[in-house]
Amino acid sequence: MKELHSVVCIKPVPDQRFWDKISLDPKTQTLRRAGIPVALGPLDLNALEEALRIKESRGGKVTVVSMGPPGTEEILEWAIVLGADEAVLLSDRAFAGADTLATAYVLASGIKKLGDVDLVFLGNESLDGSTGQVGPQVAEFLGMSHLTHITKIDLTGDNKLEAKFRIEFGSIDVEVKTPVVIAVDKEINEPRLANIWGAVWAQERKINCWSINDVEVDRDKLGLSGSPTQVAGVTTIELKRKGEMLTGEPADIARQLVKKLQTDKVLPEA
Amino acid sequence: MSFKMTHEQELARKIALEFAEREIIPHRDKLRVEDEEFEEQLAVKEAKAGFHLAMIPRDEGGTGLGQVGRVVMEEELSAAYPRMVSSLHREFAYVFAKATGGVVKEKWMPLILKGEASAAPFINEPQGGSDLMNYTTTARRDGDDWIINGRKCFISDGHKVEFGMILLKTGDPKDPATRGARSMTAFIVEEDMPGYKVERVEKSMAGNLTATVSFTDVRVPGNYIVPPGVGRGISPVFLAVWDVGRMGISAMLLGCILGSCRSSIQFAKERVLYGKPIHDLQAIKHRIADMYIDLAASRALTYRAAWLRDQGMNSSQEQSIAKYYCTQAAIRASLHAINIHGGSGVMDEYMPQMYYRYAPCLIAGGGTDEIMKDTIAASAINGANPVMGANPAETSGFYIL
Ligand SMILES: Cc1cc2nc3c(=O)[nH]c(=O)nc-3n(C[C@H](O)[C@H](O)[C@H](O)COP(=O)(O)OP(=O)(O)OC[C@H]3O[C@@H](n4cnc5c(N)ncnc54)[C@H](O)[C@@H]3O)c2cc1C
Ligand SMILES: Cc1cc2nc3c(=O)[nH]c(=O)nc-3n(C[C@H](O)[C@H](O)[C@H](O)COP(=O)(O)OP(=O)(O)OC[C@H]3O[C@@H](n4cnc5c(N)ncnc54)[C@H](O)[C@@H]3O)c2cc1C
């Protein structure tokens, strides 16, 4: 069987352990992220896991690609710790401020430069932006088919595979030819824990940093100015609590409480 | 001189921490009741994660992370739950197999690399561990083989290990050439040799840590003698006790201190008294400070002793100092943790009592407090440089990293 080259797109997202430290700047309408460590998004871990399993069963290699500011090396390195063979960071001031289309454009240009690619994996949606658009857009730029919400993959031949994706009341099985872009859901696998060899691999395997000069791109399609969508406004929902003291005998309080919860439709009517 | 961890060592800590967060911390209730099935599965997962490969150089199939990398990982794993970390006995296995070489190494090395073999030092005897010259377990020559008779007790994981390095009396008390230290020889013994029997698992205040193993006419081939050879058993046994034993024990004690610190900080932030978290109380703050001072000092001593080994230098004195200090510090820190937690500190579901019960279990293993002090004093009196401490590069070649 042919060995496969898988590319996994991974996005730096704020580490969930520090979410309480993130706030919204009301002036610029952007997140105040300074000092918040970045981590690999949870679905990106599933995407990486699937690629690593394919490498282990079929041979081949796994390359991780990310577009992000300096500092993104940290998540690329962690992907190497988990088993990726190579890593590419697409980073340039010109890429900054990109919407999903401009992001996908740069990612696709990086993947093109890698050459022979059989499978491109992504998370179905990111932890923060969560549009779910990047996968299909990358596929369009690369001229590949794409699959989203994928929960299972079976390699059925040298250049075809079967995949299952979720719909509201069930699932659908499809067969596609490679190369193909696959956006995965959480159910597809359980991401592995790092092996201690990862600490060794991190010293030996390289993170390539590519700027605008290293990829073939049209400058007009990059960054903020190349983005057809712009954020017009961000609204945060304010959560407030209202307190109310119930008094009386315990049994009495319980009755009052149930009634109130029924009125608020938290509990069904008796 | 650098006090900075290498990037590789930092990653090793992070990998161990993530492992602990997923595989140990959510399952503490199973470790608390010594669920054997769970413990076995955890040991297999630890083998797969490769924690035991740090002391094995790259060209022998290990990760070559060295003593510092190893200490850092074992510290994190023990902080999650204090216990005999499975890597410790796999490291013993490596050091014993390598020291013996020949058929022993050929047989065990492939299994050791996969994490499928573990070993313990069979040194201590019931009539008094510190008094080596009074040991009575013997080996008698029979053609090319040797026949072993006697009993060893308090052998850590003695009920689990596949093999061990045993210290035996081979000398003749009437022959001046084979008296004293010259009467002792180290052998490899294997668990499936006829006459090898786990007599009992000893129940300690922190669970089943050790066992008594007896030997009745156990036949061992001559090529199972650990070099340098007959009548030269003390040096290989002691080097193993130091590098694997004392450094590993210090790492587990660091885990007790680190775990005590972490649980206390969390509790002091969550517990509200008089309308404020208790870390606002100066008495609590000072306990936390004391714990951190002990953590910093213990780490400095242990990491340095480990680092010296990674540079190929003898650090037996530094290791004794680290082991002694970490023992005291872990007992102090875990008692502070109990105090900070109030009544909860001694309850089963909270960690402080577990650290407090485990730390003293490590007093005797690898040599008691008094023996540590004796060793430290001996090297001080015999002229070790008190500023630099480290002895010159080792020449025995027994331990190579
Ligand atoms: C209108 C709009 C304006 C924006 N403006 C800005 C801005 O000014 N500055 C700014 O920093 N961001 C901006 N963003 C955010 C940025 O465009 C998105 O973070 C990015 O395009 C990915 O979108 P998403 O998170 O919704 O990805 P999704 O489509 O939800 O992500 C799916 C998967 O795509 C992959 N992926 C996504 N992004 C990357 C990446 N960067 N590298 C590698 N793989 C990736 C991952 O595998 C991920 O799991 C904007 C977004 C929008 C919608
Ligand atoms: C958890 C645990 C794990 C262990 N693992 C192993 C193992 O894997 N392999 C193994 O062989 N052994 C192991 N041991 C045994 C350990 O090495 C011995 O317990 C230790 O050497 C002390 O021996 P002892 O218990 O017989 O005490 P003794 O030697 O009888 O000591 C009694 C007291 O006398 C003191 N004393 C002894 N000599 C002197 C001196 N010269 N000056 C002043 N005071 C002195 C001691 O410090 C102690 O306070 C383990 C023990 C424990 C508790």
Tally of DSSP β-strands of chain A: 13
Percent of residues in β-strands of chain B: 15-25%
Q: What's the end-to-end separation of chain A, in Å?
A: 63 Å
Major beta-sheet overview of chain B: 4 strands, antiparallel
Find the count of extended strands of chain B (DSSP E, 2+ residues).
9
| Pattern of helices and strands of chain A | EEEEEHEHEHEHEEEEHEH
Number of domains of chain B: 3
Number of separate domains of chain A: 2
User: CATH homologous superfamily name of the largest domain in chain A?
Assistant: HUPs
The CATH architecture term of the largest domain in chain B is Up-down Bundle
Structural class from helices and strands of chain B? Answer: alpha+beta
Approximately what portion of the residues of chain A adopt beta-strand conformation? 25-35%
Radius of gyration of chain A equals: 23 Å
Can you tell me the CATH class of the largest domain in chain B? Mainly Alpha
Low-confidence segments of chain B:
385-401
Distance N to C terminus of chain B = 20 Å
- CATH T-level fold name of the largest domain in chain B: Butyryl-CoA Dehydrogenase, subunit A, domain 3
CATH superfamily of the largest domain in chain B: Butyryl-CoA Dehydrogenase, subunit A, domain 3
Number of helices of chain B: 11
